[in-house]
Amino acid sequence: MVDDENKSLWPFALIYVGQAFSLFGSTLVQFSLVWYLTRSSGSASVLAIGTIMAMLPTIFLAPFAGAFVDRWSRKWVLIISDALTALSLVFLAFLFLINSVAIWHIYFIMFFRSLMSIFHTTAFQASTSLMVPDKHLARVGGLNQALVGLMNILAFPAGAILMEFLPMYGILSIDVITAIVAVIPVLTLGVPQPKERVQKKESLLSEMREGLNFLLELPRGFFLFVGIMTVNFLVTPAVTLIPLYITRHFNGGAFEYAWAEAFFGVGLITGGIVLGVWGGLKRRMLTTMLSFFVGGVVLTLIGTLPPDGYRILLVSCFILGFIIPIGGGSFFAMLQSIAPPELHGRTISLVNAASAAMSPLGLAIAGPITDLIGPQIWFVTGGITMSSLSALALTIREITHIEETMHNRKNNINQTPKEK
Predict the structure, then answer these.
(1) What is the domain class of 204-420 according to CATH?
(2) Considering the entire predicted model, what is its pTM?
(3) Domain boundaries along the sequence of the chain
(4) Contacts of 347 (CB under 8 A, 6+ apart)
(5) 119 vs 133 pLDDT, higher one
(6) 374: left (phi over 0), alpha (psi -120 to 50) or beta
(7) Which is nearest to 113 in space by CA: 184, 19, 26, 20?
(8) With pLDDT > 70 as the criterion, what percentage of the chain qualifies?
(9) What CA–CA distance (Å, rounded) separates 126 from 194?
(10) Do 78 and 191 touch, CB atoms closer than 8 A?
């Protein structure tokens, strides 16, 4: 582990640029694969299965990946996950080249890419606090969110254009090239490791339990954990149902939906840049909860708009996009700050897995309910719940002062009896 005063941002910046290239290639290929399934099958079931295959690793395997990341060299996790992803695309490109690709091949690649992405993302997030001074963690979190929004805006149209001029094996080769670009700085600059390394004597389950215990032993940790899962359970259907809401309630079409996505994407980029420059409030949980409170109010507003309120919907989509990187970036910066570096992989992966696990459950319940009473109920219910839980959290000192509490607890543990 490197002390804050000895950390230099330049190695991280070079690695970050390489990761941005890789993210562009991955987003472009993901869009191309989804569109290929759409164009070749015309089946909603085929697309649904593809989505599920991409979600399964996050739900069931992310906690195990986090335990492995804390055991292994994070540098080599980044390199090998990128390399294996590239090799899987070389295999799929070869199948396209010889006209032998089948839908199940694409399912397998989507599953495998998602699995490698879990290892890669967890290792990178767990390593960020070892390369970036604590005061800049929220800024990096904001830039990460802005980068995702920017890549969606750039890679989607780029993928659509390239599919008109290149065969699928040509498009897949782009991600192979960007993966190589991402590996070079990691290979040459390296990634620091925490002082405390997980010993392989313990079972994976006991290591995962150690990460879970840390989260639950946080001040009001159970409240935070359950709150995240509850909000994700209710809000995911609302966000997913926006296209249906636009067609049914606002009598819109593909053009109106595209504008809503565009406003959301611009908000995502803007919010990420703002957090990247600003860094958030000193108490990062205040930034998180205030952002989520505003997000809940906006979701509730969306669910109560009249049929002629489409322009308000566009503004609301921008605000939602704006607050997501500010709230989410601040939360993960807080988690990186208070968790011991040797637990970063497990804590981050457990939070991600818990959130992702609620998505398919919420969507499964939302379908029949929406058919009966419409999608507005999910915006209103999700928004009110999100705002209420955030407002309640803002009144609980243990939550708003969680970083000071954990840092003081850590300092007391590290002090000798004489120092105390």
Answers:
(1) mainly alpha
(2) 0.66
(3) 1-190, 204-420
(4) 66, 211, 214, 215, 335, 339
(5) 119
(6) left
(7) 26
(8) 86
(9) 10
(10) yes
Residue owning tokens 């406003």: 263
Q: What is the mean pLDDT of residues 39-60?
A: 68
Q: Answer whether 1-190 and 204-420 agree in fold.
A: yes
**Cα(351)–Cα(15) distance, integer angstroms:** 25
> 232, 230, 106, 117: which is closest to 172 by C-alpha?
106
Closest listed residue to residue 125, CA positions, set 144, 148, 111:
144
| H-state helical runs in 2-136 | 9-41, 44-56, 62-71, 74-97, 103-131
Distance between CA atoms of residues 400 and 219, nearest Å: 10
Rounded Cα gap, residues 418 and 420, in angstroms: 5
Q: What is the pLDDT of residues 54-97, one digit of tens each?
A: 777 877 777 777 778 877 888 888 899 989 999 999 999 999 99
Say if CB 348 and CB 126 are below 8 A apart: yes
Euclidean distance between CA atoms 248 and 356, whole angstroms: 27
pLDDT of residue 211: 78
Say how far apart CA 323 and CA 392 lie, in whole Å. Answer: 19
Instruction: In whole angstroms, give the CA distance from residue 174 to residue 176.
Output: 5
Residue found under tokens 């850590």: 410
CB 118 within 8 Å of CB 56? no
Give the pLDDT of residue 276. 78
Q: What is the Rg, in whole angstroms, of the alpha carbon atoms belonging to the chain?
A: 22
Give me 117's structure tokens. 């992405």
Between helix 242-249 and helix 376-394 the angle, nearest 10°, is 130
- The dihedral built from the CA positions of residue 352, 52, 322 and 147, taken in this order, carries a sign that is positive
pLDDT of residue 420: 47
Contact at 8 Å (CB) between 329 and 273?
A: no
CATH fold group of domain 1-190: Growth Hormone; Chain: A; (1.20.1250)
Q: Is the CB of residue 134 less than 8 Å from the CB of residue 10? A: no
CA separation for the pair 3, 8 (Å, rounded):
10
Minimal CA–CA distance to 331: which of 195, 142, 184? 142
> Which amino acid belongs to residue 285?
M
Question: What one-letter code names the amino acid at 96?
Answer: F
Among the listed residues 125, 121, 143, 123, the one whose alpha carbon sits nearest the alpha carbon of residue 280: 143
CB atoms within 10 A of CB 166: 14
Contact in structure between 185 and 15 (CB atoms under 8 Å) = yes
